[in-house]
Structure formats: structure tokens, C-alpha cells
Design goal:
It is built from five helices and eleven strands; from the N terminus they run αααβαβββββββαβββ. The protein has 194 residues and is α/β, with parallel strands linked by helices. The strands form three sheets. A seven-stranded mixed sheet has the order 3-2-1-6-9-10-11, with helices on both faces. Strands 4-5 form a two-stranded antiparallel sheet. The longest helix is centred in the first third of the chain and has 16 residues, at 19-34. The radius of gyration is 16 Å and the shape is globular. The model has no long low-confidence stretch (mean pLDDT 93).
């Protein structure tokens, strides 16, 4: 399927979720993430220090990343969140601390107002939002390219973990050379390794 078709399909499917379903599925994804360390190469994930986490756009019925946030805090990890510049399609990354003040932007994305900036090259693990993904680890996002640009600025060994309410698609037909593949994708019932 084409990215455009996949976007329509999965945005539509998400609109039918109740708040309770979002919570249940999000918790299942967070719990499944913990079992990454049982994979042959997954133990490296939790040994890392800097974890980039997207903050949930509730209005888009996205995965509630609050559960993952608690896991990261419990493991004493450095948590990084971003602020998006829609003019340049660039993201600036900030350390999430007790003093970080968040505010929703015009697209209802919770963002840090300011704080201690973290370069993309310092980030070890990125939890990647998506609408759909395929068997090769390609993903479909909202189509602005923020994450592909950001991931291209990370070091080559940065671990990219997609989070999805839905299971894998066979193929995304219209990939571009700027698309960056995931290392893993975690759904409520599976961990996919690419």
C-alpha cells in the first residue's frame, strides 16, 4: 500500500478506540518493551543512558507514552523530549527534568518550553511514533519528515524502536531514500526485530 493510503487507514482505525482501549494497549506495549532484554540483542537497549520519548498527542489517539516514561524513570535513565519547528521541520531536544515545563503547541503536541539542550548525537535509543510499519522495518508517520530528519542526525548505532497499536503490514510501496528503518517495532502482542 502507499503511505497516503496507510495514513488514512490507520488514522481511521484509531478513531474507534475508547480511552480505556488506548490505556490497555499502551500498557501492553510498555510491558512488552520490558521483555526486549530477553531477545538475543535486546539486552543492549536497557543498558543505554539517553532515551528519546515522544509525548502523546491525545487528540490523535496516539499511544500513551506515560507508562514508558515511568519505566525509564524507574530505571534512572536520562529522558529526552523534543520541540518541533514547523518552519524548518527540525526538532530541538531537551532533557526532561523535574523543572521542565510542558506546553501544547498549535498541533496539540506537548513540548518543553525550554531547558537543557541535548544533541541528537548523544541519544542512544529513540522511541518512534508511527501510523504503520512493514516487515522490513519501514514506517509511515504523519508525513512531515520530522523523525527521518532527526534519526539521520543520530549516531549510526542509535536504536530505533517503533511503537504501534497495530500489527505489521506486508509492504510500504512508496519508500524514499530519506526513510530510516526501525530496529524494532513493539505492538501490544509482538516485538518485531528488523
Amino acid at each position: 500500500m502507499l503511505k497516503k493510503e496507510l495514513r488514512v487507514k490507520y488514522k481511521e482505525l484509531r478513531t474507534h478506540f475508547s480511552q480505556k482501549e488506548i490505556e490497555t494497549k499502551s500498557l501492553a506495549i510498555a510491558n512488552r518493551l520490558l521483555s526486549l532484554s530477553n531477545l538475543p540483542d535486546g539486552s543492549q537497549v536497557w543498558g543505554k543512558t539517553y532515551f528519546h520519548l515522544f509525548l502523546t498527542i491525545e487528540e490523535q489517539k496516539e499511544i500513551d507514552t506515560e507508562f514508558i516514561l515511568h519505566i525509564l524513570q524507574g530505571k534512572d535513565k536520562e529522558i529526552v523530549v523534543s520541540k518541533s519547528d514547523f518552519a524548518t521541520l527540525e526538532m530541538t531536544h531537551y532533557l526532561l527534568t523535574d523543572n521542565t515545563k510542558l506546553k501544547k503547541n498549535e498541533y496539540n503536541i506537548p513540548e518543553p518550553i525550554d531547558g537543557l539542550e541535548v544533541p541528537a548525537t548523544k541519544i542512544d535509543v529513540v522511541f518512534v511514533p508511527l501510523l504503520a510499519f512493514d516487515v522490513k522495518g519501514n514506517r509511515v508517520g504523519y508525513g512531515k519528515g520530522f523523525y527521518d530528519k532527526f534519526l539521520s542526525q543520530c549516531k549510526s548505532e542509535t536504536i530505533k524502536i517503533g511503537l504501534s497499536f497495530f500489527e505489521v503490514e506486508e509492504n510500504i510501496d512508496d519508500l524514499s531514500e530519506n526513510d530510516i528503518q526501525l530496529n524494532y517495532c513493539v505492538t501490544p502482542s509482538e516485538i518485531y526485530t528488523f
